[in-house]
Amino acid sequence: MDFADISPWLSLGPTGALTGYLIRDNIRLRRENRDQEAAINSERQLRYAAEERAAKAVAKVGGLETQVQYLTTEVHRLNTMLGLQPLPLPAPPPPAAEGDDDDQS
What we know:
This protein has helices at residues 3-6, 13-81. It is mainly α and 105 residues long. It has one domain (3-81). The longest helix is centred in the middle third of the chain and has 69 residues, at 13-81. The mean pLDDT is 78. Residues 84-105 are annotated as: Disordered.
């Protein structure tokens, strides 16, 4: 216990000094807790925003893959209709194995 922490409370006797110290310590701990909670909430918001952006990017890539497959099929069909040498269709990507997680290092 630091004397500066309890000096304003000494006039109240030993119990008052201890009470004053506990009150000041409680206030200090609450401030620290509030600051830590603010940092945790900020980190959580950043993580949620990053997860949301990642989900949108994955959906966009999936949509683009579908469009590319459709357009490739259409080009193949039109080349065949026009009697042109058809381009070989690319093989579709293999399905991801269950439990396969590409983003792990």
